[in-house]
Design goal:
binds zinc ion; de novo design (two linked rop proteins); OB fold (Dihydrolipoamide Acetyltransferase, E2P); alpha+beta; disordered C terminus
């Protein structure tokens, strides 16, 4: 069975001597794996269309469940500029890790595809020297879109005001709710109103005007550290409880 779709290469891994398995975020099939026969033998257009982050129109032969073969792949946008910019690539790779680890494979999500493609275009065309705020916003937005954003607006159990974020709960908790016997001694992070303010706007404002947000260095570092802790907790929990065979080669 031949199917056509468009996808963004999230990662590739070697398969045997000369073959590759590519993981795509597709427009209509969600995240899928596909097999590419000998793309590394030559520096062909087919080979370069399998570079990470490439947006391409692809033809697949075979059932989706049993690793279809890529029979054709035409580049729509290579996003080479992102691969060649170390900081951009590292930051986008974090999004890729979130996507692969926290979204189920094979579930169509057109909105997620458009969102990720839009982020690649924004990061590629952004001329700011420092894109730290933009990268942080993209991470927050992605987490919000797939339902894993931390909650920072009040206690996650009772709604009371709180500035203590608990990574194991993914939320801020007030003094009362944080000290129940089963929670004794859990680590937390003290945040401030600037962090909450920036975080809330990151989620609510359209991403293309988010460059109007001008967080201070302390706010950026604070929120970035919080997200790192949140993700470390989420990903380790997820990886322990799921099949790791495909995650060993994670970007
Ligand atoms: Zn509470």
């Amino acid at each position: 069975m031949l199917t056509r779709t468009e996808g963004i290469v999230l990662k590739t891994q070697k398969y045997g001597e000369a073959d590759l398995i590519a993981t795509y975020l597709t427009s209509d099939k969600g995240i899928i794996n596909a097999f590419a026969k000998s793309p590394r033998k030559t520096k062909s257009r087919f080979g370069s269309s399998l570079e990470p982050l490439t947006h391409a129109k692809i033809s697949l032969w075979g059932k989706e469940q049993s690793l279809p073969r890529i029979t054709q792949s035409d580049i729509t946008n290579s996003f080479r500029q992102i691969r060649e910019n170390y900081r951009d690539f590292v930051n986008i790779s974090k999004l890729v890790e979130i996507l692969i680890s926290l979204t189920p494979a094979g579930i169509p999500n057109t909105r997620l595809f458009s969102f990720f493609l839009n982020i690649l275009h924004i990061v590629k065309s952004s001329e700011h020297e420092l894109k730290d705020a933009l990268h942080l916003i993209t991470r927050i937005r992605l987490l919000a879109m797939i339902g894993y954003a931390p909650r920072l607006k009040g206690c996650g159990k009772c709604g009371e005001k709180s500035l203590d974020f608990y990574p194991d709960s993914g939320t801020t908790l007030c003094g009362k709710c944080a000290v129940t016997p089963d929670r004794a001694g859990k680590p937390f992070m003290r945040i401030n109103n600037k962090v909450i303010h920036f975080y809330t706007h990151s989620i609510e404002w359209p991403i293309n005007i988010s460059n109007r947000l001008k967080p201070g260095r302390d706010t950026l570092y604070g929120l970035s550290g919080l997200l790192d802790k949140h993700l470390t907790y989420l990903l380790s929990k997820k990886l322990q409880s799921s099949d790791r065979s495909f995650r060993v080669f994670q970007v």
